[in-house]
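Same chain as my last thread, 69 residues:
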Amino acid sequence: MKINYTFLFLIISAWPLYYLYQHQLGAISFLVLAIFFFLKSMKELKMIKKEEKPDDNQPKREKIKQNSR
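reply #2:
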């Protein structure tokens, strides 16, 4: 999700979450935001792991043993 969409979602959801907070239901708004940011961070983690994963096409280096005489 692009950063612009994230800000747009937070701005649009700010009024309903504030309404819940004013009616002593702040735990629900906190839970919604926690789930949103958890899903966003898991998506970012998947992208990072995909970038760091080495390609299987590269040949692996073999260690050469030296005889000690």
